[in-house]
């Protein structure tokens, strides 16, 4: 692994996932730690491995260390100890290939989208002036704002404003896009627009590292996730592997709970439990429609039947014994 130079020195040497090398990853951190003055440990010996090409959800309740981690990856905050690698390159070479949206850029309300991006682009001393127009047009096109490019920023919807901010992060070819809570403060329409845009950008081959405190958002938008709690990594992997440790259950609402429990047991479903007028059991390989037919065939009055799939929230609760408190 090529460690990005930082004052804390070399990476800790913590193990990468077996059989993998740093070239496969857009971001690797090893023992990454940030202790603020006053003793607060915001990020605690964090080992992250973000595969290239993934949409990687960096998930955790408020205050779990997500922004501090992102600020370290971007060289805005020096780690106390540990190391990190971005795109396997030294920081000066990596950063031009990284687009980032950490705190929303300040746009001028009375200027158009395109004029705002021109101001933004001209503030970057590394961006060649001759190709500015093309670069800006491409970024606007990529976020679907070409038609609204001449409209004043103050007349943009919340979703359009955030898409313009993402366009600002995409001025130039990027291998990695880092977005800190990009749907925060957006209305449902704006949230949908940003989620769709993230998927499109990923489909074009850019790795997207996106922080969120919204479990459902990460489940919908991401291929992989890392779950944080008070600065520590709780789990990471593909969404399927994170959910995979938990079983899908079937839930039957019925006034005939005892009969329903007997039928589920006869069918071979495991861990049959009865409470509050409902019977639940591990679904295993059984088809829910067959289970329903068997229940009805045995005279059980089925008021409701649901397949309860494990969620990332269940993963978090299972691993920490705590609820996922977004205000925590
Ligand atoms: N400059 C700082 N000085 C001292 N403590 C800080 C500083 N920045 C962050 N912290 C603390 O570090 C912890 C992690 O904060 P951080 O902002 O990284 O979390 P987060 O997961 O991004 O949360 P949020 O979603 O609320 O931004 C918090 O307890 C926070 O109060």
Automatic annotation (TrEMBL):
SUPFAM superfamilies for the chain: P-loop containing nucleoside triphosphate hydrolases (SSF52540)
Gene3D superfamilies: P-loop containing nucleotide triphosphate hydrolases
Keyword field contains ATP-binding: yes
SMART domains to which the protein is assigned, alphabetical: AAA
Domain ABC transporter: 27-255
Keywords assigned by UniProt, alphabetized: ATP-binding, Nucleotide-binding, Transport
One annotated GO molecular function: ATP hydrolysis activity
UniProt keyword Membrane, yes or no: no
Protein name, as recorded: ABC-2 type transport system ATP-binding protein
Lineage summary: Bacteria, Bacillati, Actinomycetota, Actinomycetes, Streptosporangiales
